[in-house]
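User: Could you check the structure of this?
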Amino acid sequence: MTLAIARQRALILQKVRQFFINKNVLEVDTPLLCSGTVTDVYLDAFDCDYYYSKTTLSPLKYYLQTSPEFALKRLLASDYGDIFQLCKAFRHEECGRHHNAEFTILEWYRLGFDHLELMDEVAELLTFILSCDGVDKTTYQQLFIDYVGVDPLLASQTDLKRILNNNNKLSDWLVKETDIDVLLQVILAEIIEPHIGNNRPCFIYDFPSSQASLAKMSKENPLVAERFECYYRGIELVNGFHELTDAKEQLVRFNRDNKQRREKDLVEKPIDMRFIAALEAGLPECSGVALGIDRLVMLACDLDHIDQVITFNTNNA
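Assistant: Sure, the predicted structure tokens are below.
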């Protein structure tokens, strides 16, 4: 990263903080090294053994956080109110043009907001930082109907594989794939994404219920989860949820993740019971969102590689 870009990055971070100061949202700090981690099948955390004293025979397992979400929700359950955090996060995955194993994340939570209200606030922040001419918004369902002519909430494996085949995207591994969500994700990434968010940010909301993650299900449509993402110039920038507050349902989802991990011969992950306890104590009605700061800086500076906006990438850290 050049000195000129470093100065631009610093200015962007100042603007982000000012955005939340103006809205009376509190900046907080949470640990990056925790005893719990995510169970998500498609996310892996770095782990380490912690020998907390010279006499320790068996180490404790700790994890670098893939996002500060669980800790932030513990603060929400402790009546912190509206909060945000700017921090490092870590994901054990391949580095690339838009990915670095260590990255900077912005995450914030707004009490009393649903996912649509928070989506409006994210659009406000992006317009402020990127000086873009508004945003586009569409449901996940309508996006698929418009671009590939299929309803993703009702489509079969056969429907989705036909779309992939018609677009020359049906590779050998996809022929054998039985997970509807994997097929949907490939169609979104390979066929639809190149057509959206090219001129201004595009928000996609109301995802299939099978992709709920930590979001509430819609009361109006049980096939839909109340979450959103935002894409701009080929970059996935934002992921937001109308947050699930039901501890029992969250535990069911975590256990389902680990079942999928076993089926895929992946290592099971320990469930963060401190996070579950916070939900049991009472998470207030809220929506939350995570935004990749390095990607935001790339877009603001009109650059095309994440290495151009960080001081040391994973290869030379």
